[in-house]
């Protein structure tokens, strides 16, 4: 019992310190929120009849996990919202301009299925501008590569649930919080967009590891936020040691929220299922996720420039934008996002950050 009490006590101290520093760390990472003097991540959702930016039936890159149109989602209003920052306008996405800027370059998304969500979105957004452009798409285990051949642009997706290493050892599957050998595959990119959080919360059969390892010691389990902090700190060290800012632009995708519990938007009997409108209140009832505070804390300590795509709050508003039951898996999905849909806005913000 002493060990259990000590672990709980340390976890509470850790969470308290994160919360106490939330405002400071949000300010410390503010360079990732500004284009000029505008905070592009604070604003509102507005109806725009010109949306969506592409049609699901004409984009060959959307997987069935996100293809709500193919699975006959009956409502269409979720497609018609545009993000409007309070103090400026986002530049309209131009796929040809994007291709010309990144001609001959390599852009890699690194992370889990939310990275895949965003990668497929960007692929479709570009394709809608050059539908007749020659492309090749190669999928290998853990890696996908889409090439726009006429421009020499490579859009890559490196699938990793944790950023840090997950290895098979004699004792079983070990999540190594202080090891990041995977990073060798990320070298030589012109842009890197990282993401990780979704899998850090998994338990039971969906948990892909048996032990965590830190400093040579194995743990059956530990506080997941502490583990996430340690894993992201290892990733931050990799960035500091391996990234040349003159050659590689680095982004962190930010925390994508879920909408399984209606209490987050003051409707406790609901989930994302059946939601047809964004949250419209002035202040989203749910607090800032602790995972977002962890990200801010780690980013504030990185020596190299990393731009935070601060997508959490604007995505919290979009309780209407999930696949729910309209996807390949048929089970309730309040974690991922329909395409076309919210990840297109994430890429509009990425576009604004690269052209702003």
Automatic annotation (TrEMBL):
The keyword Membrane applies. Belongs to the PC-esterase family. TBL subfamily. Pfam families: PC-Esterase, PMR5N. Its main location: membrane. One of its GO terms (cellular component) is membrane. It is a single-pass membrane protein. Keywords: Membrane, Signal, Signal-anchor, Transmembrane, Transmembrane helix. One of its GO terms (molecular function) is O-acetyltransferase activity. The keyword Transmembrane applies. Residues 37-89 form the Trichome birefringence-like N-terminal domain. Residues 90-352 form the Trichome birefringence-like C-terminal domain. The lineage of its organism: Eukaryota, Viridiplantae, Streptophyta, Embryophyta, Tracheophyta. Residues 1-22 form the signal peptide. This is Trichome birefringence-like N-terminal domain-containing protein. InterPro entries: TBL, TBL_C, TBL_N. It comes from the Eukaryota. It is found in: Membrane.
């Amino acid at each position: 019992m002493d060990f259990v009490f000590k672990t709980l006590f340390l976890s509470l101290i850790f969470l308290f310190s994160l919360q106490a520093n939330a405002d400071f760390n949000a300010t410390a990472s503010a360079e990732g929120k500004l284009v000029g003097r505008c905070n592009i991540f604070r604003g509102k959702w507005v109806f725009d009849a010109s949306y969506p930016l592409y049609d699901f039936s004409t984009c060959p890159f959307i997987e069935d996990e996100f293809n709500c149109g193919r699975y006959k989602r009956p409502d269409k209003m979720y497609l018609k919202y545009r993000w409007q920052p309070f103090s400026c306008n986002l530049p309209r996405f131009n796929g040809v301009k994007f291709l010309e800027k990144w001609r001959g370059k390599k852009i890699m998304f690194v992370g889990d299925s939310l990275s895949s969500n965003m990668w497929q979105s960007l692929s479709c957004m570009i394709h809608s501008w050059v539908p007749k452009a020659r492309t090749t798409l190669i999928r290998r285990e853990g890696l996908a590569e889409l090439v726009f051949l006429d421009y020499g642009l490579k859009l890559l997706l490196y699938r990793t649930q944790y950023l840090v290493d997950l290895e098979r050892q004699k004792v079983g599957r070990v999540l190594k919080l202080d090891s990041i050998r995977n990073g060798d595959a990320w070298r030589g990119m012109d842009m890197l967009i990282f993401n990780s959080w979704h899998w850090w919360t998994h338990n039971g059969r969906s948990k892909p590891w048996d032990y965590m390892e830190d400093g040579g010691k194995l743990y059956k389990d530990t506080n997941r936020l502490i583990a996430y902090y340690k894993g992201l700190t290892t990733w931050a060290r990799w960035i500091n040691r391996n990234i040349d800012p003159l050659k590689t632009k680095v982004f962190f995708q930010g925390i994508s929220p879920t909408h399984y519990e209606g209490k987050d938007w003051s409707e406790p009997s609901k989930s994302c299922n059946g939601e047809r409108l964004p949250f419209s209140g002035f202040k989203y009832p749910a607090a800032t996720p602790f995972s977002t505070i962890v990200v801010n804390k780690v980013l504030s300590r990185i020596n190299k420039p990393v731009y935070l795509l601060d997508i959490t709050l604007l995505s919290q508003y979009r309780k209407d934008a999930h696949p729910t039951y309209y996807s390949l898996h048929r089970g309730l999905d309040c974690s991922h996002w329909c395409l076309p849909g919210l990840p297109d806005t994430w890429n509009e913000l990425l576009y604004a950050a690269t052209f702003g």
